[in-house]
Each structure stands twice: as structure tokens, then as C-alpha cells.
Design goal:
The protein is mainly beta. The chain has one domain (about 5-280). The chain is built from three helices and twelve strands, in the order H-E-E-E-E-H-E-E-H-E-E-E-E-E-E. It has helices at about 5-10, 115-120, 145, and strands at about 30-40, 45-60, 85, 90-100, 125-130, 135, 170, 190, 205-210, 210-225, 230-240, 270-280. Strands 1, 2, 3, 4, 5, 10, 11 and 12 form an eight-stranded antiparallel beta sheet that branches. The chain has a two-stranded antiparallel sheet with strand order 6-9. It is elongated. Mean pLDDT is about 85; it is low at about 1-10.
Length: about 280
């Protein structure tokens, strides 16, 4: 059974506003180039870095990460039309960690003694970093415009459970000044509403949101009080760069904040410093 005539022709029984169902016939495809570089501890330095250049495609991404829930089909009779980048598709992904023991102090390259060693010797610095390109999202029509009220595109689906109606692309979403900034991540004027009673263009996950960057830093030193008693001091900073990682923009093209990233929609927290101490004996 096809659905080429639009929403109204898709309802097999007009006595029901909608029929909800879960299907498990999706498929996915993932390809990646992965690179790993590692240096084991020597001369006070060790580090590891992992990079992936990948592409993930599927007909629907289930809950667990990225999508915030189960993807829905615009046209349930054509699940293949949903084949597009996964909600978890990240084109570039880089993670790394490093530990460096400063070469000053007893037992290190530049020996120190007495009070100078106690103050300046034996320090170590460590860091963990993660960076990746943005997650995809779908330009769509808000539920209010699509299904609610007498002027809705299809008021017969006003009680539809998790229905999705995509917009129609009529221009360049990256045109106009300021695109790529929180105030206008994409140009909503590049999209139009579909004709009443018809599906929109399949635009599932056709645009990508902001990149993600986070770096944590740790500084520590172990003081030898006696041969058996040790005192460890640590200072740790989370999001040491105090970098703001924004979420995806509002993708409903018919709302007042279309294409904008809400300032409070961030994926991380401001920089935090944490001090700690441990006594071992």
C-alpha cells in the first residue's frame, strides 16, 4: 500500500484519528576510519589519542544517546525513505589524554633538595580532552501548525502520537548573515510548509548542530612526610577552558525561534575547580 497522495490517503480507517504501532524492520550502516596514537610512560610523559572519521546511516535511531527517544517515520508505509544520517552520526571524533611529570625534584632529571624540593619538586599535570563535530537534526513543522486547529495542514491528526511532518526545502539553509551562530544557526526562510494534506520533503537529519569541546585538567603532588606516611594534594578542573557547548537549534521552521539556539540549552557546565587531599600510611 502506498502513500503517494499524502496524509489523508494514509489513514486506512477514517474512524480512527491515528493508529500507533512499533515496527522493528529498520536497518543501519556504519563506516569509519580509526587512528590511535599512544606513548607509554617514559621520561615522565605518557599520552594517548584516538581519532575517528565516520558516517552512520539508518532508518531510525532508538533511544540511548543523541535522539532523546525513538525516531518516527513521516510515512510509515515507506520506512526506506527514512534512511539518512543517524541521530548519533558524528563525522569527526577526537579524544585524548596526557600525563606529564615535571622533571624537577628528587629522583627526576633536575634534582632538588630540602625546602625547594618540598615546594617545587614532584609535581605532575594530567589532562583529558574530547572534541567532535555536531549531531544532526531535522527541519520540521511544529505540531501546532501541522495538526492543531482549523487551519492545520491535517487537523485529522490532532491527537496523533509522536507524528512527524518535515518541511520543504526551497533555498539554501546556510544563506543569510550570521548563520552558524547561536542567534541563527540556519536560515528558516530556506524552508516552507508542505501543501495541506501532503508529506513534507524527507529532510531527516539533514543539518548538523554545533561542535563539542571539553577539556579537564589535573595538577597533583605527593609529599613524603616519613618513609611510610605520604600526603597527596590534587587540584582538578572540569571544563578548564570554560567553553560553552551549545545544543542543537530549534528545528521547527514555523516558530518564532526557528533556527536559533536557546542560550540555556547547553551540553556542559561552567568551569569547576575541585581541591582534594589524601593521607596514606
Amino acid at each position: 500500500m502506498g502513500c503517494s497522495s499524502g496524509w489523508w490517503a494514509c489513514n486506512p480507517n477514517p474512524n480512527f484519528p491515528y493508529i500507533a504501532g512499533l515496527i522493528f524492520n529498520g536497518w543501519s550502516n556504519y563506516n569509519a576510519f580509526q587512528l590511535r596514537m599512544q606513548k607509554r610512560m617514559s621520561h615522565g610523559l605518557e599520552f594517548q589519542a584516538n581519532y575517528a572519521f565516520s558516517k552512520s546511516l539508518d532508518t531510525g535511531t532508538s533511544r540511548g544517546w543523541g535522539s532523546g527517544g525513538v525516531d518516527t517515520y513521516q510515512d510509515p508505509y515507506s520506512p526506506g525513505a527514512n534512511y539518512a544520517p543517524s541521530a548519533t552520526d558524528i563525522r569527526h571524533f577526537l579524544v585524548g589524554s596526557v600525563v606529564y611529570e615535571l622533571p624537577f625534584g628528587a629522583g627526576r632529571q633536575y634534582r632538588l633538595h630540602g625546602v625547594l624540593d618540598a615546594v617545587a619538586g614532584g609535581w605532575r599535570v594530567s589532562s583529558i580532552m574530547q572534541w567532535h563535530t555536531g549531531l544532526p537534526f531535522s527541519p520540521s513543522v511544529s505540531a501546532t501548525t501541522a495538526f492543531t486547529g482549523g487551519n492545520a495542514l491535517d487537523p485529522g491528526l490532532s491527537t496523533c502520537w509522536s507524528c512527524t511532518l518535515y518541511a520543504v526545502r526551497v533555498g539554501d539553509p546556510y544563506s543569510g548573515g550570521g548563520h552558524g551562530a547561536p542567534g541563527q544557526w540556519f536560515n528558516p526562510a530556506a524552508y516552507a510548509l508542505p501543501a495541506a494534506g501532503t508529506f513534507g520533503q524527507n529532510l531527516r537529519n539533514s543539518l548538523y548542530g554545533p561542535q563539542f569541546l571539553n577539556m579537564d585538567l589535573g595538577i597533583g603532588k605527593t609529599f613524603s612526610i616519613t618513609e611510610r606516611v605520604k600526603f597527596e594534594f590534587r587540584a582538578d578542573s572540569y571544563n578548564v577552558l570554560n567553553h560553552i557547548d551549545y545544543g542543537n537549534p530549534n528545528s521547527s521552521i514555523d516558530t518564532g525561534t526557528a533556527g536559533m539556539i536557546i542560550p540555556t540549552d547547553v551540553a556542559n557546565t561552567p568551569r569547576v575547580w575541585q581541591l582534594g587531599a589524601k593521607l596514606s600510611f
